[in-house]
What does this fold into?
Amino acid sequence: MYGEVLKKWRTDLGMSQPKFAIYCGLNPRSYNHYEEERNMPAALSLIQMAARGLDINELFKAEIEYQKKKFEKQELRCSGMDIYAAVSDDIGVHGKRKANAS
It folds into this structure.
């Protein structure tokens, strides 16, 4: 995930979180939240990191892979949705039971 990529960049440079944040022109507290994945980096923060030579595509790739795995798990859990579809066909869009067509 993106926090792991950020941490790897920072540790490869041998910097603490506050030092790396300042190096990238970021607020240290904001950077901490990015690395701990409490917040996603804003566009300006990504631009500032890229200006320091960091490949922000790595961040996107890591997050995309994480999201793909997350969706695969959801799809497995939703394989029983055929039952839901049958019930919703009977109930209708607004939760009111449809009148029999006979």
Notes: DSSP finds six helices and no strands in the chain. The two ends are 55 Å apart (CA to CA). Residues 93-98 have pLDDT under 50 and may be disordered. The domain at 2-66 is CATH 1.10.260.40 (434 Repressor (Amino-terminal Domain)).
